[in-house]
Amino acid sequence: MLLSPILTSIQDIYENYLPLTEGNPASYIPELAKVNPDLFGIAICTADGQIYEVGDSQHLFTIQSISKAFVYGLALADHGVTAVMKKVGVEPTGEAFNSIVFDEVNNRPYNPMVNAGAIATTALIKGNSAEERFSRILTLFEDFVGHPLTVDESVYQSESETGHRNRAIAYLELNSGMIEQPIDEHLELYFRQCSILVSGRDLAVMSATLANNGINPITKKQVIEPDIIKSILSVMASCGMYNFSGEWIYKVGLPAKSGVGGGIIAVLPGQFGIGTFSPRLDELGNSVRGLKVCEDISSRFNFHLFDTHTLLDSIIHRQYNGSIVSSTKQRRQAEKEILEKEGKQIAVFELQGDLYFSTMEKLFRYLENLDPEIKYLILDGHFINNVNSSALFLLDQTKEELLKNNITLIVSNFDTNIIKTLLSKGWLDVNFSVDLDSALEECENLLLSKYLSKQIDKNKKLSLSEMDLLLEFTPPEIEIIKPLFEEIIYKEKESITVEGEEANQIFFLASGTATVYLKLLNGDKKRRLTTYISGTCFGELALFDRGNRYANIVADNDVICYVLHFEKLKILINNYPEIYLKLLEILGKNLVKKLRRNSAEIKNFSGVNILSRK
Ligand code: GLU
To answer: Is 412 inside any structural domain?
Structure first.
């Protein structure tokens, strides 16, 4: 079994700091002093729910101050940023967590991560009774960890009996009008929220939920709105580590929160959360080993948020035009000629990666330099990951610009949520295609409708002489070959060829359409490969190798085919060798054309023939 290098790294870090026995467990809450000081656990949970853990990562301890970050989130959800800001600021104090300092200019505690601010935050939690208010906090924490939680009643009692300093803070706040009654209820609520039992593993999941836009990566539940997360993480980054916060963000570079129970959480937004537990604290109240672990992990793996020097990936996965790549729809000869000549009016941009300000700016630079001949633009989203709101705004502006310049925009493979947002922005005039092939087909149809005087009537039965491949045959030659063909009618959904069967005919489609399906290797799933329309021909490959059929071709509707059995060709060989040769030559040329086209597409897709930005 391969051992994950992530796991071996945190094991290594664990072993490095296990001998570190500096500091002491918190003792100002008497019950906290009873903890086994040697306990030590580390857990990392990725934004998609993979957990790596070592040591005592499942040992339960009280969450203490770490609760402040989450209750702050609940207060924001209850009242919104503006109202909460009036009651609690976001400035670091530079003082100890339990210091009695207030922002007197604004008549509010400095920030929600110190006791004064946390008590004021807890006072904001809505509910009709003390029980209901606490149960809302507990439920939030349970949603964050993904399972039921309990309170350590003895730690709670212990703090409630000895928490005179916090009482003093609360009453001072009452005195200045920073918080309102019932003060004792707010305080008990605060003591209880601090006494909720969690493990290092739980903390990792809680912080991974913050990293994952508020969606618990294990239960997939949206626990808190994404908008609130940036507020929580901001105060964690500036005030989360007591009066060590400045040095912490300087060295570790991650928003974090620590608690006197010995826990620390740290978040790398979009990627993962860390939870550590070791009860020995330094003078500032941070877990000694926890600090070391986070510093070490951050420097080993470059997690510092300001240490990102990522160069922009290209937003363009592939770029080409409609004369190089066409839809899989089989076209009549006349249509093919138009597309070959005019296909360059269709530009395809397959986008990739994340869409945000800088990648959209790049995309727009490409579009600005579009060939003036281009009249149709496909933006394909198959390889897009995330799209933020500024990208949506810029995309919307881009659409307006395209419309002004008479360029028809078609988007394909866009995520349904993005489509919903774009529709709400008024994108009703834009065609959304499920896949790139349909988008290309749609553009081709629009283009062809401009150039073809009359549309091809799908239902009209064509004569043998109207078959694309037989257009070069003279009327007398047609008369000679006609008796060799058998006219066969296939009902809707009837199979025309079946994969694996011996191939001994060529089919010329006189009316209707037929679709080629490939069976996928896994199970019964099938994939549409292409659709033939009247005037086109299929099954000709086997004439050269007499191999077996490689796909199923099914009549989409009632279909009439002119079928030529290979056996019948003997008549031509014996009596009209020049007609036979002509037929072979046409079939050969047709195959060469297909191959050339395929090579051009492959060349294009391997980047050799990417369109210039000119
Ligand atoms: N319940 C503790 C107190 O208010 C929490 C302190 C902390 O973890 O920073 O004193």
So the answer is: yes
Which mutation among 194, 198, 264 tests ligand 1's pocket best, with the greatest number of atoms within 8 A of CB? 194
Read off the tokens for 326: 């066409």
In the chain, the number of structural domains is: 3
User: What phi and psi values does residue 55 have, to the nearest 5 degrees?
Assistant: 65, -145
* DSSP class per residue in 211-223: HTTTB-TTT--B-
Catalogue the active-site residues. 65, 68, 190, 242, 260
Q: Do 266 and 252 meet the contact criterion of CB atoms below 8 Å apart?
A: yes
Q: Residue 280 sits in a domain of what CATH number?
A: 3.40.710.10
Phi, psi of 403 (to 5 degrees): -60, -45
Q: Are 530 and 405 in the same domain?
A: no
Looking at the DSSP bridge assignments, the partners of residue 66 are none
Atom of ligand 1 nearest to the CA of 64: 8
Cβ-count burial 65-91 (b if 16+ within 10 Å, e if not): bbbbbbbbbbbbbebeeeebeebbbbe
Give all strands (DSSP E) within 306-423, no chain letters: 316-321, 346-355, 376-387, 408-412
Which numbered atom of ligand 1 lies nearest the CA of 118? 4
Per-residue pLDDT tens digits for 439-453: 999 999 999 999 987
Strands 408-412 and 376-387: parallel
For residue 261, the CA-to-ligand 1 centroid distance in Å is 8
Mutate to test the pocket of ligand 1, among 159, 165, 203, 239 (most ligand atoms within 8 A of CB): 159
Residues 294 and 356 grouped into a single domain: no
CA of 262 to the centre of ligand 1 (A): 11
**What CA–CA distance (Å, rounded) separates 151 from 67?**
12
Which among 425, 455, 485 is the end of a domain? 455
Strand 376-387 to 346-355 pairing: parallel
| Position 194 pLDDT exceeds 50 | yes
Task: Give the residue, by CA position, lying nearest to ligand 1 atom 6.
Answer: 65
pTM score, two decimals?
0.76
Same domain membership, residue 220 and residue 358: no
Q: Give residue ranges with CB within 6 A of ligand 1.
A: 64-65, 97-98, 115, 159, 166, 194, 259-260, 285
CB 600 within 8 A of CB 324: yes
pLDDT of residue 523: 62
Asked if the model's pLDDT at residue 66 lies above 70, the reply is yes
Q: What is the mean pLDDT of residues 419-437?
A: 89
Contact 517, 529 (CB under 8 A): yes
Considering the domain architecture, whether residues 295 and 350 belong to the same structural domain is answered as no
Q: Give me the domain span that covers residue 480.
A: 464-601
Asked whether residue 79 falls in the same domain as residue 227, the answer is yes
Q: Specify the amino acid at residue 485.
A: F
Q: What is the pLDDT of residues 21-39, one digit of tens each?
A: 999 999 999 999 999 999 9
CATH of the domain at 344: 3.30.750.24
Locate 1 and state its tokens. Answer: 């079994």
Domain boundary among 455, 488, 507: 455
361 and 477 within one domain: no
Q: Which residues contact 84 (CB under 8 A, 6 or more apart)?
A: 72, 75, 76, 121, 124
Give the nearest ligand 1 atom to 166 CA. Answer: 4
